[in-house]
Amino acid sequence: MIHSGKIVSENTSRHQSLNKPYNPVTGEGCCGERVRIEIEDALVPVLYLPQAMQEMKICRDLQQYGSLKKLFRAKGVKPDGELVIDFWMEFCEQRYKYDFEYFAVSCITIRDKISSEDIPFRLNRGQRKLLATMEQMRTDNLIAVRLMSIRFS
Hints:
This protein is mainly alpha-helical. The chain has helices spanning 4-18, 57-65, 68-74, 81-98, 100-107, 125-139, 142-151; strands at 34-38, 46-50, 109-111, 118-120. The protein is 54% helix and 10% strand. The strands form two sheets. It has a two-stranded antiparallel ribbon. A two-stranded antiparallel ribbon has the order 3-4. A hairpin with a 7-residue loop joins strand 1 and strand 2 (46-50).
């Protein structure tokens, strides 16, 4: 016999997973392994960056110092407004290479069907699921192998 409490519990669990927070700017709820980094004086103080970005020294330094001003001082540089903006722009350019969801919402616009306005491209649930599958294939080198086999067949 089916226990109704178990069904309700499973339904609640699935509903929560479908409606978990998603923010491609901070990285919360995005696909892949993420590392939380807090940067107290950044434009976005809490980021969930792709695990692969931890290979970059700048990400490790940001995590260690927790502040742009502290990082600049540790490197012997006086943090002025223009330098901070240039640094942040370069950091975002590097993040684009690792984080498609961030790139999409930051750089790509689409036309909204209802308002006909250009809006940032924010992946829907189905697109995020496909992206996660493709990203896993990319990291497992399955996509490159398939492309090479197509090219030489």
